[in-house]
Design a protein that fits this description.
Length: 702
């Protein structure tokens, strides 16, 4: 509808307003506009709106135009069926013999008069109901003849014939229904493709859907990425596409293919809208305009930032050389503020080169182990002042998923978590008695309580008390002296009754610097044997043991759900679970306290948000891509002093010496010192960088 109004305006400006507006609109709809949607309701509404746009200018309303083959239903991403490419089903150009003759008729004189294009054009102009039905039948028969002429097996042919090819949601025959667009001499394809594609992830979708996407596009990702690639396939050379999508392609690693294809073509305009453009959409959005034409290295384009703005004309506006984005940190589409420009100017090219060389090698712990010799040599050779990637000097990741925390995990006696369990256990038992008509009584002995709840879960189901509910309160005498465990006990479990060890379950409160975890896991021999021997087996309730070689090691972890500032803290000696994104230094040149300090700084938060991942989720490969400067001994000493200050404040809060509000106030001052240290360390001292500290570019609650 927007394009109809734009083209109407253009026609009136170019030709004057002498022609009848209704006739102009009808001409535009017939000759210029095509639409596809997978939802039938959306197609019906679009057709109705076209009709309404015509009758609004008429004294006597005319019938609705024949839009059956103009605004159509279909899965626009797919033009194949069971692996068979259907894009040249009815190829109609003269001289087609050079490309494979797909014509349907031997009589050359009549061939061009009997093409699908001719029948579709006739249908659009037809006003006689009976003739319309005849034309629909002819169109169907013509396509079926072509189907029969192909070397499809009988089963595939039967399935295709059973489908209503003009009204299905499994694929869409772009080159058949819109054949007039693709049969234009020297301009095969659309002049303009626009869209507001679905913001739908393929995570958790049917494997068959992913397989088809991979088969057609070479990858399976958020659907909007596929629509961008589809648009380039549908455009003629020098044609233009514009999409409004999520802005995740600005930064995330998974969207580097989208950034690459946009930069390979003639990118004209990029608008960062943020979170306010659609009230019902809980994502940050953007639009772009790009021309299907190889980009010139001297080319520049416009970037608009709508932060704090309501109208595009008031947006912050930047003219950006395309070469700046082609060699930026992470190859990202960053908003070129003074601060971001300064960061990228200093580290863009080297970071881009590091990723080009190492990203695949450090993409997983398995790959890191596979290339250990090369990486060990690399770490030996790095020296103070060098820039590296965090993934080159650390390893780790997610930890253990027990699949039944109630059975394995407890909390330390005397903690707030234990107090909460003491309150909730009687209520849980009472609720079960009421729902099952039973009369179980809460034992007085702690171990008997465990046995009772274990038995009830066995009888009524793992989640009878709620998924992940913890009911074990562990007394001190059952906690192992985990600092002195042997290597065998760490690997195979503990033989005596004091078998509970610290368990890092992540931290939903997002504590930075330090956390005293109340959680413990029963690391007995029997439990460890069960967890490891069943790890990864299919079926409900099967555990997954990841990165077990890093259990009982000191490192650092971070919350994968972030606001602007990252939330990183010391990870003590413990077993860590799937919610604890934990990494461990592999070189004394970059100790854990140094890395925690860097990640908690304003500069690193700026790098992450603007260059690595602007979404609320901070993934392991985002963390591995952080640019890290190898420090001098003096810089390490200064960093350790600042780190210890922050840790001390956190410990005082957990000990009850100060309140959480007092803790926050003290940490603000320490944060300023840390930010000044890190900005100086990285040599990014722009004239206004101090204005950015504690005034982040964007703050969004997860």
């Amino acid at each position: 509808m927007g394009m109809l109004n734009e083209l109407l305006h253009c026609r009136e400006v170019l030709c004057g307003q002498h022609d009848n507006r209704t006739n102009i609109k009808k001409s535009i709809i017939k000759e210029n506009l095509y639409g596809v949607d997978i939802e039938k309701g959306a197609v019906d509404i679009a057709r109705l709106r076209f009709w309404l746009s015509i009758v609004v200018d008429e004294e006597t309303p005319s019938p609705m135009p024949n839009l059956d083959y103009k605004i159509m239903q279909g899965n626009s991403l797919i033009e194949s069926f069971e692996g068979i490419d259907l894009s040249q089903l009815t190829y109609e150009k003269e001289g087609a013999k050079d490309k494979g003759d797909f014509s349907l008729f031997d009589d050359e004189k009549n061939r061009l008069q009997k093409t699908v294009s001719y029948l579709l054009a006739s249908y659009y102009s037809c006003s006689d109901h009976d003739r319309k039905e005849e034309l629909q039948q002819e169109i169907s028969e013509t396509i079926n003849k072509q189907l029969e002429s192909q070397s499809y097996n009988s089963e595939i042919l039967a399935q295709l014939k059973d489908l209503n090819l003009a009204d299905n949601n499994r694929f869409f025959l772009w080159h058949t229904w819109f054949s007039d667009v693709f049969n234009r001499d020297k301009k095969s394809g659309f002049d303009i493709v626009i869209g507001n594609p679905p913001y739908v992830s393929t995570k958790g979708r049917e494997e068959e859907e992913k397989r088809i996407l991979i088969e057609n596009y070479g990858f399976a990702d958020d659907l909007y990425s596929h629509f961008i690639f589809l648009a380039f396939n549908l455009l003629r050379e020098s044609g233009v596409q514009s999409m409004i999508t999520s802005d995740t392609y600005f930064t995330t690693v998974m969207k580097s293919n989208v950034r690459k294809v946009l930069l390979e073509n003639n990118l004209l305009q990029l608008v960062h809208w943020g979170y306010d453009i659609f009230p019902e959409a809980m994502v940050s959005t953007s639009t772009f305009i790009v021309q299907k034409k190889k980009s010139d290295e001297k080319h520049s384009f416009l970037v608009f930032d709508m932060k704090g703005r309501k109208e595009l004309r008031n947006a912050s506006k930047y003219t950006v050389p395309i070469k700046k984005y082609k060699a930026s940190i992470n190859g990202s589409f960053f908003i070129p503020t003074t601060l971001c420009d300064a960061i990228n100017e200093k580290y863009g090219q080297i970071h881009y080169s590091l990723l080009e060389q190492w990203s695949e090698i450090i993409s997983t712990s398995k790959n890191i182990a596979k290339h250990s010799i090369i990486l060990d040599k690399y770490r030996e050779d790095i020296k103070p002042g060098d820039i590296t990637l965090l993934g080159l000097v650390t390893d780790g990741g997610q930890g253990l998923a027990t699949a039944n925390n109630g059975k394995f995990v407890g909390v330390k006696s005397g903690t707030k978590a234990a107090d909460n369990i003491n309150i909730s256990r009687p209520k849980k038992l009472q609720e079960l008695n009421q729902s099952k008509g039973t009369s179980y009584v809460m034992p007085s002995d702690e171990l008997e309580i465990w046995d009772l709840f274990d038995c009830l879960k066995e009888k009524y189901g793992r989640d009878i008390f709620g998924q992940g509910y913890l009911y074990r309160i562990v007394p001190d005498h059952m906690i192992a002296n985990y600092e002195n465990l042997s290597d065998e006990e760490k690997e195979k479990g503990i033989a005596n009754d004091a078998s509970f060890v610290p368990y890092d379950k992540g931290d939903k409160d997002g504590n930075r610097w330090y956390l005293e975890t109340p959680y413990l896991i029963d690391w007995s021999k029997d439990n460890v044997k069960f967890l490891k021997s069943n790890s990864g087996k299919k079926g409900k309730g099967m555990p997954v043991v990841r990165n077990s070689g890093f259990y009982f090691r000191e490192g650092f972890c971070y919350s994968d759900i972030k606001t602007f500032f990252l939330r990183c803290r010391l990870k003590g000696v413990s077993v860590h679970d799937v919610k604890s994104m934990s990494l461990f230094p592999l070189s004394e040149k970059v100790p854990y306290y140094y890395i925690v300090t860097l990640i908690n700084s304003h500069l690193m938060a700026t790098v992450v948000y603007n260059f690595l991942n602007s979404t609320p989720s901070f993934q392991i490969n985002d963390c591995r891509a952080l640019p890290v400067i190898i420090p001098t001994e003096a810089q390490l000493e200064e960093c350790k002093t600042l780190f210890d200050k922050a840790i001390s404040v956190q410990k005082e809060m957990f000990a009850g010496i100060i309140t959480s509000d007092e803790r926050d106030e003290l940490l603000v001052t320490i944060q300023d010192e840390i930010d000044a240290f890190v900005y100086k360390l990285y040599g990014v001292e722009t004239t206004d960088y101090l204005n950015h500290i504690n005034k982040p570019y964007v703050t969004t609650e997860a």
